[in-house]
């Protein structure tokens, strides 16, 4: 179908590389090349200059690229209008989520969504907040679900849920003997942190900076599971989402330490580019996301 050829052509044009385009489209590199050859044969013109390092458009390629973008936008619009007539939610959604949301909240939400809209194809990418934001900007995913403070004039950022953050320690840590700790007791402690780019890391860094806390030593892990295990082993203390440590708090593997006059909270947000292409499937997904957040809040979980 000509639409598929155009999608491949636009992706290669924007990525300037056949391998990256193939990866994004879940196609083989020979498959991508075949789509481009079919277009060139149909139009009777060379569209791209190929080299081992990158791809450059010919003059004909530039003309087609501009027209192809408009054709694909009109095609997507037609599909949405037809779906509205049929009152059937179909299509595909590629969701990106930061680790906290992707590992602790999204699976249940996806199961409910798929049960209600079985004709929608879902794909999920999980990374830290910075990685998800970049994928949204590059339009590698339709929308991102991220934690913490995200900014960007090119983005639509919609907070949909509050996330409670907790200071956690091993059950035998000296802080556990204090009913409510003063923040000054956290001076010269060992801290367990997530990697740079993580929303949890940004939250922890801001807390340490605002309260002028000097750290004795830090240990950095690129997953919340690693942070939890390090804290439970007595390696240090950490700030984590309640969603991340809920089971460990219930089992007694970790302890939450209240701080005088301090309550941690951050936003969970939906992010999309300002020029994102809306679809009924995406609209229903976001709607269900918001409704789920309201239910959790009503049950004292959000």
From TrEMBL:
Any one Pfam family match given in the protein's UniProt record, by short name: HTH_1
Location of the HTH lysR-type domain: 1-58
SUPFAM superfamilies: Periplasmic binding protein-like II (SSF53850), Winged helix' DNA-binding domain (SSF46785)
InterPro entries in the cross-refs: LysR_HTH_N, LysR_subst-bd, WH-like_DNA-bd_sf, WH_DNA-bd_sf
Chain segments annotated as transmembrane: none
Keyword Transferase attributed: no
Gene Ontology terms for molecular function: DNA-binding transcription factor activity; transcription cis-regulatory region binding
Superkingdom field: Bacteria
Keywords attached to this entry: DNA-binding, Transcription, Transcription regulation
Keyword Transport: no
Family to which this protein belongs: Belongs to the LysR transcriptional regulatory family.
PANTHER family from the UniProt entry: HTH-TYPE TRANSCRIPTIONAL REGULATOR, HTH-TYPE TRANSCRIPTIONAL REGULATOR CYSL
This protein's name: LysR family transcriptional regulator
Species annotation: Paenibacillus lutimineralis
């Amino acid at each position: 179908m000509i639409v598929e050829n155009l999608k491949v052509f636009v992706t290669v044009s924007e990525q300037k590389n056949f391998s990256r385009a193939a990866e994004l489209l879940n196609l083989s590199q020979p498959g991508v090349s075949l789509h481009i050859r079919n277009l060139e044969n149909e139009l009777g013109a060379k569209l791209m200059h190929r080299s081992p390092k990158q791809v450059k458009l010919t003059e004909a390629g530039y003309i087609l690229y501009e027209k192809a973008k408009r054709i694909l936008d009109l095609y997507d619009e037609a599909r949405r209008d037809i779906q509205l007539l049929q009152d059937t939610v179909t299509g595909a959604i590629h969701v990106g989520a930061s680790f906290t949301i992707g590992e602790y909240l999204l699976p249940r939400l996806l199961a409910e969504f798929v049960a209600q809209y079985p004709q929608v194809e879902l794909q999920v990418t999980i990374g830290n907040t910075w990685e998800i934001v970049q994928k949204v900007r590059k339009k590698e995913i339709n929308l991102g679900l991220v934690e913490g403070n995200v900014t960007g004039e090119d983005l639509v950022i919609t907070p949909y849920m509050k996330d409670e953050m907790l200071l956690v320690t091993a059950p035998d840590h000296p802080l556990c003997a204090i009913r409510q700790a003063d923040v000054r007791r956290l001076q010269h402690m060992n801290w367990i942190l997530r990697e740079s780019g993580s929303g949890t890391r940004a939250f922890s860094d801001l807390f340490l900076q605002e309260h002028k806390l000097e750290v004795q030593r830090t240990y950095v892990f690129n997953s919340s599971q690693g942070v939890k295990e390090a804290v439970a082993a007595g390696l240090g203390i950490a700030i984590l989402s309640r969603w991340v440590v809920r089971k460990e708090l219930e089992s007694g593997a970790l302890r939450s330490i209240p701080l005088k006059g301090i309550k941690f909270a951050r936003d969970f947000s939906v992010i999309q580019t300002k020029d994102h292409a809306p679809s009924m499937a995406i609209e229903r997904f976001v709607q269900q996301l918001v409704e789920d957040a309201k239910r959790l809040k009503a049950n004292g979980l959000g």
